[in-house]
Structures are given as C-alpha cells and as structure tokens.
Amino acid sequence: MDSVPRFTPRQVALNALRYGIGVMTLWWVLSQVRLTEVASLLGRLNAATITAIALVSVGGVLARFYTWHVVLNRIQPVSFRAAGSTDLMVNFVNQLLPSRLSGRIAAPFVLRSRVGMAYADAAAVSGVHTGVYAVLYGATAAVGIAFAFLRLSTEILLLLGLSTALYAIAGTFVLLAGMNLAALDRVADAIERSVRTIPRVGASLADHIDNASEFTAASTDAFRVLARSPTMWLGYAAGWAVALVVAPGVRVWLLLNAFGVAFEPAVLLPLYLVMAYSVTLLPLTPGGIGVTEATATVVFVALGVPSSVIVPVIFIDRFLGVYLPALGGWYPSLQLDLSNLSIDE
Q1: Shortest CA distance to 129 belongs to which of 82, 80, 85, 65?
Q2: Whole-structure pTM value
Q3: Rg value, the chain, Cα
C-alpha cells in the first residue's frame, strides 16, 4: 500500500483557507496592541529572566520526549534520542494539520522509520500516547474551567467547554477502542468468507482481510499491555505534567512578573493556560495557530491581565513551547525513509 499522502485540489484549498484564517486571526490579535509598547515590554527582560525561561523551556521539551520514551520502552527498548526525534516530527506534522490529534496519524510511520518498530506495535504506542494525552488534557482543562467559571463570558465558556469535552471523549474513545480492536474479527471473518466467493479476485481480497485481522490482533495485545501498565501511566503523567502544565506555567509566570503584572493565585496559572490552549483540538486552523492565541488573550484579559501584556506573553510562550520545537522537527522529518512505509509486510 502506498503510504505517501496525495492531496486533492479541494484539500489544498481547504488547508489554504485554514492557514488564511490563522494568519488573519494573528493579525487581529496584534492589531489590538501597540507594537511599540510590546517592544518596550520585551526590552525589560533581564539576563536572569531570559536564562530561567530558556531552562524551563528546555526542561519542558525534554519532558515531552520522556512521554514518548516511557511508552515506547514498554514495548521495545528505544533510546531517548529516538523518542525525542519522534516527538519533534509528530509535533511538526501537528502544525500542518487542522487538529492537534490529527497529526498523530503519522506517528506509526515515524516509529517504523526511526526505531524499526512493527506497525502493529507502532499503532498501539501511538494510540496509547494519543489517548492518555487527551484524557489528561481534558481532565486538567476541566479543572481550570471550574476555577475560572465565574470570571469568563458565556461564549468563552461554551468554546472551552466544547474543546475540553472533545479532548476527554476522544481520549476515552481511543483507549477503549484500542483495547477492543479484536472485537472486529468476527465482522472481518464474515466479510472474508463472502469475498472469497468472488471470481478471480476473491482469494486475493480475502488474504488482505486476513492480514488485517492479524494486524488488529497484534495491535490490540500491545495496546492492552500499555494501557494496563501503572508504570506507563505514572511515567507518562509525570512527563506530561512537566511539559504541559509546569513548564508553560512557570514560563508565563516569569514573563508576567518581568512585565510588572502579579497573577494571583499563581498556582492556578498553569491550569488556566491548559484551559485556554485547549482549542488546539478544534479543526479551525492548522495547529490552532491564531485562534489559540486569540482565545488565550481573551481568557487572560477576563482574568485581569492587561491585553498589552498578555499578547507578547502568549506569543513568547507559544513560540518557545510549540512553534520552535515544531520547527525543530522539520529536519529529522527529512530523514524518513518513505520507500519503506508500507503496512503490507
């Protein structure tokens, strides 16, 4: 099966529209503040603050690498470097597609190329990583919404509630479906028996269906090993918390303090960030670009942060936490061996 994606004119036009919406939204956010004031704020950052932000950002990226490392090593020993390059490449693809979870579709092919993992195991690893990520994100964002409920407008609450619910539902569905793929075997067997009666091509089609059944059985076994492992859950949750909660929270707290804005209570700041960034799941623009920054700006203005301050803070946080690591995934993605990315093995 040829795994190299082909894009129709309709898909190209739709992606162009989404990028256009993202760029226009970014322009709207920037138009709400005076760029001279933003430049003045950035000029206030001293060497100590810049160093602290850099260290926190590196720690956050390494924690993201660890989430892949802890899942992969339950199936096959993999170096931390290979886990890191997998994260960078998947994150790079995430910024090209309209939803954060949609980029995970490429993960099994990345794992096949980078670590030589069988597709059944790679699909299980990717599915568990995606499912656990979404469940943790949905739960954390829901806590943020609960604390901010009385301070946000109905419209923003509905948007954040929708995206948070989608995270929780998507994560739960992926985990449950992955552990029960073998339930499709009876359907596959019935289809196989039917297509075998087709003249000339029946036997070939039936063999492909049989291969697919073997694939789902192997993938289900690996999925269950991962999803039922307390060690995997604890390790993943620790890495996820550092990457998605602690690092962004500390980074934004450092920036706000450098700009003379005290956010109280500071302990809720990381939860509010996860909540505000949850719209990345909605298929509005590639990687949520523009829409995410606009939503986060509205949320924090409602929480009492001046717009002239929160705009540069959000852009710096998104750049260091999302866009720069995604850009870092461009180079390793060039090393993918597309000639060997066929699931027919």
Answers
A1: 65
A2: 0.76
A3: 22
